[in-house]
Amino acid sequence: MPHNNVKKLLTILLALTAAPAFGGPAAFEALRLAAPGAASFTPAVPEPSRVEILSESAPAGVGARLFAASGRFLGVPYVLGPLGEGQRGEFDRGPLASYTALDCTTFVEETMAFALGGDEASSLDLLRRIRYRGGVISYETRNHFTEADWLPNNIAAGFLRDITGEVAGAGVRAVRKTVSKRAWYQGKTEADLKGFDYETPAQRAARLARFRALGENMPDQDVTLSYVPLEDLAALLPRIPAGTVVSLVREARDDKPTVVSHQFFIFDGPSGKIIRHASFGKAVLDVPAADYVSRLAGSSWRVLGFNLAAVQGL
């Protein structure tokens, strides 16, 4: 490894060790990498090339920075639920950040954090604040529900601004959903506990009981989410700003706990708008937005349209 790369990496590691948001040495939990399909997590250091791209690439404009930051993840495999609360997590001890495995929302979160942060340490601190309500790292404060947690909490924190109505104009629509976190927690099983294979069956059963108890006193939430109707999207795609965070909105159903099933970015490509997303079962990749939209009409769980949010510069 060239001398300059070693020096840069050491500087970053020293900054992370001192970062108050991650509790000194606990900052290294944020650098634990989740190998796809692995039953446990092995501490590791990010590849120097990844770090250099994040720290040195600083194009002007939020949209350009999001494009550059998201580009570093192209080809990273899709893994559902790759992140957790680190080694101190009570129910999910997945890593606090990953450079080798992402799902749709963690891809959006890490892209936002690395686009808005000035360096690795500040980016990881931003990731903490984007991913958790009030920046408090715990399972119960994680922004699990896109429509009830992730979007409203990140809008309130100043990271996002809803622009759905600006793009849709008079055609904007809204869907209503009652979110039951209590029922969601009651449905948890031992398979949802991550990083506790070493425990005895009795210990895991007790931990699962505590896990389910998190939702006991959570009231149902009536949520309203605006969207650009699917039938209008083909014509309105050119109006969507580059770098917009899109939440895919589906019809409210009693057998589904949510109305948002996917998140991704829209950018300007060489031949029109593109969607950059962590594609289920595949990897982070680009697809033509027009092609993506055209395939949504036949979904068995009906797609209503796109909720749009602009990332706000700091």
Which descriptors apply to this entry?
single chain, about 325 residues, alpha+beta, Putative xylanase fold, putative xylanase like fold, 3 domains, 11 helices, globular, disordered N terminus
| Helical/strand content category | alpha+beta
Q: Order of helices and strands, N to C?
A: HHHHHHEHEHHEHEEEEHE
How confident overall, as mean pLDDT? 85
The description of the largest β-sheet is: 8 strands, antiparallel
Low-confidence region ranges = 1-49
The separation of the N and C termini measures: 34 Å
Rg measurement, Å: 20 Å
Considering DSSP H and I runs of 4 or more, what fraction of the residues is helical? 25-40%
- CATH homologous superfamily placement of the largest domain: Putative xylanase like domain
Q: According to CATH, what is the topology of the largest domain?
A: Putative xylanase fold
Shape: globular
Bin the strand percentage.
Answer: 15-25%
CATH class of the largest domain: Mainly Alpha
CATH architect. name of the largest domain: Orthogonal Bundle
Question: What number of structural domains do the residues give?
Answer: 3
Please give the count of helices. 11
Number of E strands: 8
Summarize the structure.
This protein has 314 residues and is an alpha+beta fold. The protein has helices at 3-18, 48-56, 62-71, 104-116, 120-131, 146-156, 164-168, 181-186, 201-213, 230-236, 289-294, and strands spanning 160-162, 173-179, 221-229, 244-250, 260-269, 272-278, 284-288, 303-311.
